[in-house]
Design goal:
The chain is an alpha+beta fold. It is built from 5 helices and 17 strands. It has helices at 18-25, 32-35, 155-173, 274-289, 294-306; strands spanning 3-9, 36-47, 56-57, 61-62, 67-77, 82-90, 98-104, 116-121, 127-135, 139-148, 180-186, 195-198, 203-212, 218-220, 228-230, 237-240, 258-264. A hairpin with a 6-residue loop joins strand 15 (228-230) and strand 16 (237-240). It is flat.
Length: 313
C-alpha cells in the first residue's frame, strides 16, 4: 500500500513568538517604548446597567504572533454596582467573538474599584477585545490592550527562521506541531486490518474520506456508519471499521484513489511540550549563527526531540 501526504492548510500560529526568538538570539529590538503599542478597546466612562456581554463591547485588536496584555481601568462603582469584564477572541476583526477560557477578570465591586487590573492573553486567535456586564448600578471603567510588537531590520528574515525551525522540528519528530490540515492519499484499503493509522500525531478530526472507483466516480464515506475516528491524544490517530463492517471492495482508480482529509496538531502553542519549544529555539540559533556550536546544538536538539518522535511513519 503506497501513501502520500500533501499539506492543505499550514498553521497560522508558530510554537515560538518572534519576540521569544529575538530574546533567545539576544537581538536588540528598537526602544522599550517603541516596542509597545497601547490601543483603547472600550472607551473609559460611566457604563449603565446591562445584564449581558453585548452592550459594553470593546473594539478588536490584532494580536497574532505577539505578546498581549488586556488592561481594565476602573473608576468608581455606584453603590452595589458590579462589573464583570472578560476577554473575547475571534479569527475575524468584526465578528465571531467568543469568551476566551481563562480571560475573566475578577469581579469589580465597590470594595475593589478605583484600581487597574491586567490579564495576559495566551490564546490562539488573531483578534481580541473586551466585553463587560454591569449589574445593580452604573460603574466607571474602560479597557485597553497592550501589545509587544518589537521590530528590527531583520524581522522578515527572523520570521522565516522561526517557521523553518518549526518545520525542522516537525521533520525530526514526524509530527505536525500546531493546527494544520492535510490530505493523506492511499493506493488501497488495508487488506488485513480493520483500521488505518493517521500520521503526524495529535489528530483533531477527520474532515472526510473519499475514494474513486476505476471509472473515476468518487464516493464519500459516512462517519459512524462506514468508519469511526479515534483521536488517541498525541499519538497516532486511527480510522476504524465499525463492528461487522468491511472496507469497500470496488476496483479502485489507478492514481491516488483514496483521499483522507484530516486536521491535526496541538491547538495552542502553550500545549506543545517544553522540550520541543526549546529544541525549536536551538534549531533557530543553529541556523542563524552557523558557528562552532552547531555540533553541540544538534546533539541537544536530538536529545530534546527524541522522546517526542513518532516512530512508525
Amino acid at each position: 500500500m503506497t501513501e502520500n501526504l500533501v499539506l492543505k492548510t499550514a498553521p497560522v500560529l508558530e510554537p515560538i513568538l518572534l519576540s521569544e526568538l529575538k530574546l533567545h538570539l539576544r537581538k536588540d529590538s528598537e526602544t522599550f517604548d517603541g516596542n509597545l503599542t497601547l490601543t483603547q478597546s472600550l472607551a473609559y466612562g460611566s457604563k449603565a446597567i446591562a445584564n449581558n456581554y453585548t452592550t459594553h463591547v470593546g473594539t478588536g485588536v490584532d494580536v497574532l504572533g505577539k505578546q498581549a496584555e488586556v488592561l481594565l481601568h476602573c473608576g468608581t462603582n455606584a453603590a452595589t454596582g458590579t462589573n464583570d469584564t472578560r476577554i473575547e477572541e475571534s479569527d475575524q476583526l468584526a465578528t465571531g467573538y467568543t469568551a476566551w477560557t481563562g480571560g475573566a477578570f475578577t469581579q469589580v465591586t465597590t470594595a475593589n474599584d478605583n484600581a487597574d487590573y491586567k490579564l495576559p492573553y495566551t490564546g490562539a486567535k488573531q483578534y481580541i477585545r473586551t466585553a463587560s456586564k454591569v449589574l445593580l448600578a452604573a460603574c466607571e471603567f474602560g479597557t485597553s490592550i497592550l501589545v509587544n510588537a518589537a521590530t528590527t531590520a531583520e524581522d522578515s528574515a527572523l520570521e522565516r527562521l522561526r517557521i523553518g525551525a518549526r518545520r525542522e522540528a516537525e521533520q525530526r519528530t514526524w509530527r505536525a506541531l500546531l493546527t494544520q490540515t492535510w490530505y493523506y492519499y492511499l493506493s488501497e484499503f488495508p487488506p488485513d486490518k480493520d483500521f488505518i493509522e493517521i500520521p503526524l500525531g495529535n489528530l483533531q478530526s477527520v474532515t472526510s474520506i473519499k475514494y474513486k472507483d476505476s471509472d473515476g466516480t468518487e464516493t464519500t464515506m459516512t462517519v459512524t456508519t462506514d468508519y469511526l475516528v479515534e483521536t488517541n491524544g498525541d499519538g497516532y490517530g486511527r480510522i476504524v471499521l465499525p463492528y461487522g463492517e468491511s472496507w469497500p471492495t470496488d476496483v479502485l482508480h489507478p492514481s491516488n484513489p483514496i483521499t483522507i482529509e484530516f486536521v491535526c496538531g496541538w491547538t495552542t502553542a502553550a500545549s506543545i511540550p517544553e522540550d520541543i519549544v526549546t529544541a525549536i529555539l536551538f534549531i533557530a540559533e543553529k541556523r542563524y549563527y552557523h558557528g562552532d556550536r552547531e555540533e553541540a546544538l544538534n546533539r541537544a536538539i536530538d536529545s530534546l526531540l527524541f522522546i517526542h518522535r513518532l516512530w512508525k511513519f
